Queue: 4 jobs
Job 1
Amino acid sequence: MSEAAYGLCIFFLLYIGKGRCVNVQQNLTPILANKNNKAEIKCSYDDSGKPYMLWYQQKDTAMTLIVLSYGATSDPTYEDAFKKRFKLKRTDTLNGALEISELNLTDSAVYYCAVSIHSAVDFITRLTRNQNH
């Protein structure tokens, strides 16, 4: 079977930063997509006190930060490996979607959306970067 015939499988899970419970709307169904297509994973929640949205990619046991953004008005900050084909679209503070374009087999992974307040974001970002170095 050729590489182009393989489907991609993307899983979506949600992580909520510490604090009170947050009501999250999500679809946990795996996304199956063809190579070179694009995929969009949505994330929404109900706590405007947690304006930071972070997206992670997990392969095996390694968890890698993809992007971090504050609210809907600031530009997202992408990690170098994800700047080209990954795009975070936020319609407002409580809603966002991660779009992956030009899919390839290396994009098969579990993707996590995390929401948090600033202090937790600093901790998570530092922890993730330290684990990857």
Note: The first strand starts at residue 7 and ends at 16.
Job 2
Amino acid sequence: MLDLPRSSQRFEGKPRDEDARLTKRILELVRERPRWGYRQICQLLRREGETLNMKKMHRLWKAAGLKVPQKRRKKRATGVSTNACHVQPASFMHDVWTWDFIQSSTGERSAF
């Protein structure tokens, strides 16, 4: 026993039954409110009568692998949809000028 290194003789804590019960309740609350973080869930648990501090709540939150999903931002439309090229028909001859470039590049070759 005397030749063993001290690093191999560390105390390993065992998870409590209370932690498993709290984790189960946390997961239930997260399913009901997916946009809430660990602080708001902790407040709900305290209102239910649980006694836990933020450090313990954060540890249980991370151990369960929970994260609040990032809110996706909507892309803002630029311009007015009434002026879109697929909505407006050509109003006069050669109004759609992009076709001229496509035709000249794919059609007949001109000598420059």
Note: The chain has four helices and no strands.
Job 3
Amino acid sequence: MFRTDGLAGDERAIEGLPIRLVVALVVGVAGLSVMLNMLSGLSGLGVTELDVRPTPEVTSPGAQAVTVRVVGSDGRAVSNATVVARGDTARIDGVATARTNGSGGATLELAPSLPPNRATGTLRFEVKPPAGGSYADRRENTAVLVVRE
């Protein structure tokens, strides 16, 4: 009935298979951990997302100075970044730009206005990261709320 001269009659074949899989899994996990350890040591692979922290966050229409601080995701100040202020649901004439100083701060002279029949609006900010850094501005930044008094 069963042949004993080949693999068809060898009942041990199934017993050795799980051990080989376990050994392959252990070797694969060890190799993966070594590669990930090597990659985590490279600082050039990480990109830090930037955000703008305006002061004041809530303001009224009219000419005024708005101070912004550009920070990374870790909360540290970013110098030499260019901040661009644009109208969103509130309006400003054109765009306003400023470059951050050594402590990550910049002052923008803005004169926001609100459309007729609108009690609130927002101004939005974009950041052009400093050259040569590992920074990016992909997400929406904190906006300034403009409220008619």
Note: Residues 33 and 79 are 36 Å apart (CA to CA).
Job 4
Amino acid sequence: MIRRTLTSGLLAAVTVLALAPTADAAPAVPASHPAASALAPQSPPALLPAPARVRYTPHVNRSMTHRRSTPVLGRVTTHRFPLNVRSGPGYAHRVIGVRHAGRLIAVQCRTYGSWVRGDRQWYRLAHVRGHLRGYVSARYVRVRRTVPWC
């Protein structure tokens, strides 16, 4: 069925192109006929100067990028144990710091990483007042707003 559709479509395109008048075709009127001068190809009109090109600058919504967005506050929900801050989103990355239970942290964006108790999302911490930037498991942080993706 597809072959039949393609074949019929190709045949229709060839037929249209074969029947369509072309600009290169000479008029069917002999040159001695008075109407021949009216049917002769005209010289192209004088070209107008091109308008000045306007440079298009696409609008970028800076509030949607993780580098420009304001951090989302989240609360560490571990019980009596500090939350490890890692250098990357997963257990394979080294621990670069800790955040204590109940503490507010600034979350910049989220990404996927190692599984932690059924959750693969990790939050990237924002660099705030001397604290290191790192990753924490989203399983142990509660946020009130949606965190943008990295």
Note: The chain has a mean pLDDT of 76.
